[in-house]
């Protein structure tokens, strides 16, 4: 059973995967050779190669775990957390730990063997977003879970592993990750002083300046953040204030699919198909809704968004240990390159 | 002039290197081909290939910027911060920024073309530690600086670049990095409750348990931390409570050199010469010494140490964005491997 352990100095939780015992030499020799396409477990027609599906969209019908789907969510075959068991929060001397309880799901973004979601049709991307929102809403029903990480690793450097089939992942956790807590604290502090959302204010300022904005649609802004850690780092931000991705409206989700298609396509064209990661930043589960003034009230002050990072630069020693980064390219330059790299794609219906 | 910019949500400072303009294609094609040894600017006899030295140890005499040194510190030829100019703290709308003022120095750890410090003699490592302590003490005299990062990148993956000559780096900053602040807050909170140092308590518990201890000398303990983010992550911790590395005593520095030799040698043997990073965690400059009860009083509560991370695993998307890590190997297993991998090296005189 994996363990969740807490760093006693800075309070960061870590999954320690106690059962995946490795010898040191396994790390030294490990290379991610791509799996041949005919062995891909995520292609249509090979549904038996994965655990039984949790969710699938079959607009033209068809039975579970067979062909005919557009998007399919399955349990991870190598889950980092276990769904069954007691959380068993406890101390070990001065340390805090709990059982590694959670869920780990793979969201397969299309039936064809396409590696980069940049090459999927907007409607296909839209189906993937729809499935992600549905899975997050469903995972919230489990009372042991406090947060779900929805993220994507594309390319070997970004941690995609051996299978070159577009997919994202969902990891439901019994804790709120450190970085999410920091964002909640930062936006809460701002709200207490201003009675306004920090990221709403930031959006107004960025749209006025324009220098870091990559594109804007009816419902979203894609921009390179002012204090970007990495070249071509991007935030995809909804214009409408909402703390929770699951509150997204159908017209916003369609719009977001087009934004993803544009942004991923422009990164691919501008940076020669770079590896990348993205991660949803959204409000935790189990918050106490509507209790204004309570420290857990985050409806007004948090603003969900997606953080996207192409993996172009090496991360050096002091960046790991200090939380302090060097970015060799100003976000204003990155945004300019991406503004000029528009990709042909069907416009969202409402623009 | 580079800029220091602050993330408005979580307060993290980033260096934006505005002058190193790159085209996107430079990131896509960049590879670090090793420089031929005869072109190494850090070898004895090629002193003219670096900027003029800041410090050099020449136990047998000899003139500045000539041969005969054991350790040599020079300014970086590609500094990420500039030493001259006003800090010019200012706002830009809701954002905070300042000029990229600081120092960036390279500490060459020996005159011979040896890549991994694991292959240096203990006395050579000791000379490097001595030079690091001297440079940190000197940099503290500059009133614009608040912290110095002393770190090492070994191996291409860890950011060592093209030159395969053992060296560490010093970056003096006009701010305290986020992670250091978090450690100060965490240890301060513990001290306020217990009136004891968190890391002193941790050392007692770890030495009693023994399962995560790799080695122990008269003055130091090397251990794999309870909530390790990475396999074979290590902390090198002084047994004597001190918040500040510069307070290190001569006998401790000699001991630490032996600990480094052991730890780096054991990692090399166990993990087939892995890339690694280490970083000193020490108290900031300009603290208000002796004012007990003041929030900046960290003499009692902070405990300097060195964090060392072999770069074995890919860091995936959600780890970047969430501050939440998955470690595939328990620190107890890692410590056991490293305990059993003792390296032949002269014992410190006092053991």
Structure report:
In chain A, α2 packs across α5. In chain A, the strands form two sheets. Chain A has a ten-stranded antiparallel β-sheet with strand order 3-4-7-9-8-13-14-12-11-10, with helices on both faces. Chain A has two domains: 3-173, HIT family, subunit A; 178-339, HIT-like (HIT family, subunit A, 2-Layer Sandwich), CATH 3.30.428. Chain A is 26% helix and 21% strand. Chain A has seven helices and 15 strands. Chain A has 351 residues and is an alpha+beta fold. The mean pLDDT of chain A is 90. In chain A, β5 and β6 (95-99) form a beta hairpin. Chains A and B meet through β2, α1, β8, β9 and α3 of A and β2, α1, β8, β9 and α3 of B. β2 (13-16) of chain A pairs parallel with β15 (325-327) of chain B.
* CATH-defined topology of the largest domain in chain A: HIT family, subunit A
What is the percent of helical residues of chain A?
Answer: 25-40%
- Which residue ranges of chain A are poorly predicted, with pLDDT under 50 across at least 5 consecutive positions? none
How would you characterize the largest beta sheet of chain A?
10 strands, antiparallel
Strand order of the largest sheet of chain A: 3-4-7-9-8-13-14-12-11-10
CATH superfamily of the largest domain in chain A: HIT-like
Oligomer: homodimer
Into how many domains do the coordinates of chain A divide?
2
User: Which pair has the most extensive contact?
Assistant: A-B, 92 and 91 residues
Mean pLDDT of chain A: 90
Q: Output the structural class of chain A.
A: alpha+beta
